[in-house]
Amino acid sequence: CERAPSPGETKRCVGSVEDMIDFATSVLGRNVVARTTQNANGSKRRVTISSVSGINGGKVTKSVSCHQSLYPYLLYYCHSVPKVRVYEADVLDVVSNAKINHGVAICHIDTSSWSPGHGAFVALGSGPGQIEVCHWIFENDMTWTSAD
Questions:
Q1: pLDDT (tens digit, 9 = 90+) per residue, 108-140?
Q2: End-to-end CA distance of the chain, in Å?
Q3: For 123, how many CA atoms within 13 A lie in the half-sphere containing its CB?
Q4: Any idea where the BURP domain is (predicted)?
Q5: Alpha carbons 138 and 135: distance in angstroms, whole number
Q6: Dihedral sign, Cα of residue 109, residue 65, residue 99, residue 43
Q7: What is the C-alpha to C-alpha distance for residues 61 and 55, in angstroms, rounded to an integer?
């Protein structure tokens, strides 16, 4: 919470749902919805991704993501970064094809200001500004977007 925001980032650490809503609406306006991944089912195993839908039609949009932080009390690190796409998708068991989760993912389109040592670049063998980086929103974290 103490670090300076990255270029284009707006951030706030909040300790209540009311403060989270206030921050999200200050960035996105009053017509917002919170989206989150339902559970951890499918983690660390092969899955099938189905029924993908892009928020705002899959176009670049604004969002506010809030991540749980480890403090002696519940604290959320909320931030908005420019140039993202947000998606929702069903996660299916690869054998039975049964739905086991409903996930929310965010794609960071502009990674040019990220550190070359960022874990995503290390894992993918790339660097700042060369690729977009997408990741799931964890269970109990959330991404606020304008309501479709």
A1: 999 998 999 999 999 999 999 999 999 999 988
A2: 30
A3: 6
A4: 1-147
A5: 9
A6: positive
A7: 8
